[in-house]
Amino acid sequence: MTDRSLFNRLKSGLAKTRDLLSPSLSNQKTTELELSDELLEDFEERLLMADVGIELVQTLINQLKLDVAKAKQERLPTTVSALFKKLIVALLEPCNQAIILGDNKPFAILVVGVNGAGKTTTIGKLARRLKRNRKQVMLAAGDTFRAAAVEQLVTWGERNDVSVVAQATGADSAAVIFDALESAKARNIDVLIADTAGRLHTQNDLMTELQKVKRVMQKVDPAAPHETLLVIDASMGQNALKQAQEFHRSMQLTGLCITKLDGTAKGGVVLSIADQLGLPIRYIGVGEAIEDLQVFDAVQFADALLGLEPDT
Ligand SMILES: Nc1nc2c(ncn2[C@@H]2O[C@H](COP(=O)(O)OP(=O)(O)OP(=O)(O)O)[C@@H](O)[C@H]2O)c(=O)[nH]1
Ligand SMILES: [Mg+2]
């Protein structure tokens, strides 16, 4: 796929949030137009509806006012959208960090999150992406809780010609992942991705179980997991932020994957997550297809969110 067609997929994936946000800005030239109180109020409301979070909305609106006033004074040929883009790029840029596999072999990724967030699908898509980059990949069916979970991962494995280490439903998740990591090491695999059962951050016993998984992995490799990736569903809005905070507290996350941005107008939560957590956003999900799991790019995300052409 070309960069352009990937950007178009990103754009169509973010359509719901963009349709909510962009009408009040719609490329008003700062040199021509007053940024009226009415317009600002409308924009503020839209940001709130997109689940940006109230404090951040205030900060962004205040800064936008200052930036627009300055641009007008200096007669800069810019637009309100372009100025707003600058603001959100600055906010998102620290989270713009792709996973670097480095020399670890295997590089072990532990995938966690609440039920239905998109963990298993993301693992499938990620395996495909890594294979395309000529990496040897192995999957660990650490979701031993749900009957269909192992099957779902095995199907992804078959589809991508990737081996899956699994045991029967009800097996100890940590034991499955331990076996998989040992096996991946013995077979000189590049990347091991471990699935886990969905759980709520409020379920203490299940969160403790995840901590155990981590400890058990460290018996094979003290540096493992090299990535603890939380998958969150953007349509949860501010609840997704709350989940991320709680999972981070108990699991010391190293990265996020934000899925289902295509199904929601609450995509503004990505800004809130960047602001509150500052964790690397490794990937975003903007649809069901493989290409819809995209490496997060702050500038492209901002362009797609505001309906701007790249390089505006
Ligand atoms: N539209 C859309 N759907 C997605 C995206 N990512 C995942 N899904 C869908 O979300 C649903 C749940 O995905 P799973 O991967 O099974 O979620 P999970 O986190 O593994 O769920 P549990 O194992 O039950 O905790 C599936 O129907 C996926 O196709 C996305 O970016 N966009
Ligand atoms: Mg799953």
How many beta-strand runs? 8
List bound small molecules.
Answer: guanosine-5'-triphosphate, magnesium ion
Oligomer classification? single chain
Separate helix tally? 12
Q: Low-confidence runs (pLDDT<50, min 5 residues)?
A: none
Shape category:
elongated
Fraction of residues in β-strands = 5-15%
Largest sheet: 8 strands, mixed
H/E series: HHHHHEHEHEHEHEHEHEEH
Taking all residues together, what is the mean pLDDT?
93
Report the C-alpha radius of gyration, rounded: 21 Å
Q: Supply the helix-strand structural class.
A: alpha/beta
**Span from first to last CA?**
23 Å
Textual characterization of the structure:
- With 312 residues, the protein is an alpha/beta fold.
- Helix content is 49%, strand content 12%.
- The chain has twelve helices and eight strands.
- The chain has an eight-stranded mixed β-sheet, with helices on both faces.
- A hairpin with a 7-residue loop joins strand 7 (281-285) and strand 8 (293-295).
- Helix 6 runs parallel beside helix 7.
- The chain starts with a helix and ends in a 6-residue tail after the last helix.
- 48% of the residues are buried.
- The mean pLDDT is 93.
- The structure holds guanosine-5'-triphosphate (GTP) and magnesium ion (MG).
- Guanosine-5'-triphosphate (GTP) binds next to helix 6.
